[in-house]
UniProtKB/TrEMBL annotation:
The chain crosses the membrane at residues 92-113, 120-136, 156-175. The keyword Transmembrane applies. InterPro entries: VanZ-like. This is VanZ family protein. Keywords: Membrane, Transmembrane, Transmembrane helix. It comes from the Bacteria. Residues 17-167 form the VanZ-like domain. NCBIfam families: vanZ_1. It comes from Faecalicoccus acidiformans. Pfam families: VanZ. The lineage of its organism: Bacteria, Bacillati, Bacillota, Erysipelotrichia, Erysipelotrichales. The gene is vanZ.
Length: 183
């Protein structure tokens, strides 16, 4: 499990990542506690800032304009929300914040020496349960509704993080194997 000489540092690092997980969970809870009007206003502001950034940075060259148009066409074609940029930004926020939460949980478990399968299962369980309870909480907020789709998007964000981190972990295990064998 843990190397004896490293346990104080591992515990300290794990506490740091637990604290970061707590900050992310508090952010999720705080955002879902906003009433519908306030939440809609915030996401519209974020959407407008993103549109301005894309226009200013990406669409300032002919290549950028071409790339921007390809991205817009891809999103409109594949997003269930089509060209509703505000809804796309809201759902991307769900995906991203649960990606971050899963990352913090997975790293905490890795630091504590939990095996890969355990990390995957525990991280997905934490994120899935938190997503469900967050939606239940949001259902009690004025102007907000519970959404199974949001739980699915949250879970996909967590699953993507877990997948990437597991591949990195497996790759690291393969690369470091010859060095461990000689110890």
């Amino acid at each position: 499990m843990m190397k004896k000489k490293n346990w104080p540092l591992r515990i300290l690092c794990a506490l740091l990542f637990v604290a970061l997980s707590g900050v992310i969970m508090l952010s999720i809870y705080t955002l879902s506690a906003e009433d519908g009007l306030e939440s809609g206003s915030r996401s519209e502001q974020v959407t407008e800032v993103l549109k301005e950034e894309v226009q200013e940075r990406l669409e300032s060259t002919p290549e950028g304009v071409a790339l921007s148009e390809r991205i817009k066409a891809f999103i409109i074609l594949h997003s269930p929300y089509g060209s509703d940029w505000n809804m796309n930004v809201r759902k991307l926020a769900h995906f991203t914040i649960y990606f971050a939460l899963a990352t913090m949980c997975y790293i905490t478990l890795a630091i504590l020496g939990v095996g890969k399968i355990g990390r995957i299962l525990i991280t997905m369980l934490i994120c899935g349960v938190f997503a469900i309870f967050d939606e239940l909480h949001q259902g009690d907020v004025i102007g907000r509704t519970m959404s199974e789709r949001d739980v699915i998007i949250d879970s996909l964000g967590a699953l993507t993080s877990v997948g990437i981190l597991t591949v990195i972990s497996i790759f690291y295990s393969i690369i470091s194997y010859p060095f461990r064998k000689n110890q």
